[in-house]
Amino acid sequence: LSQDTYHRQSEIVMEYLLEYFENLDERLDIDDFDVEYSSGVLTLKCGSLGTYVLNKQPPNKQIWLSSPISGPKRYDFDSKHKKWFYHRDNSTLDELLNEELSTIFGTKVNISLPNASN
Q1: Domain count of the fold of the chain
Q2: Where found in the cell (predicted)?
Q3: Which run of H or of E encompasses 4?
Q4: Domain range spanning residue 26?
């Protein structure tokens, strides 16, 4: 994975998630819900339900996730499948976010992360 491909793919994911979470905020009524993205770090504050932090890690070509439910995970981009995978359990970033956020918000969350064409 080249640095250019990493930066393009990770930025697409971060921008998509920022927009998705902003729209989610409009649909749900959660106290102290906030999302912000700055300098490669996306923070999703879910009030008393916890805070998610996703950040780009260019030296490792990864996206790191800190979850209030499952803890820290490191995702690598798989060019063949065009997905961000956590290699310890082979789950994808969007699968984990869909599962955990659906549980904590009590409504179906359906994130389908896009990818750039080469």
Answers
A1: 1
A2: Mitochondrion
A3: helix 3-27
A4: 3-105
30 backbone dihedrals φ, ψ, rounded to 5°: -115, 125
What pTM was computed for the model?
Answer: 0.91
At 44, the amino acid letter reads L
Which residues lie below 8 Å from residue 94, measured CB to CB, with a gap of 6+? 83, 84, 111, 112, 113
Residues belonging to the chain: 118
**Selection from 82, 97, 99 nearest residue 35 by Cα:** 97
Pairwise CA distance, residues 101 & 103, whole Å: 5
What are 118's two structure tokens?
A: 């080469």
Examine residue 53 and state whether it is found in any structural domain, yes or no.
yes
Nearest to 59 by CA among 14, 3, 116, 115: 3
User: Could you tell me if residue 94 is inside a domain?
Assistant: yes
Please report whether residue 112 resides in a domain. no
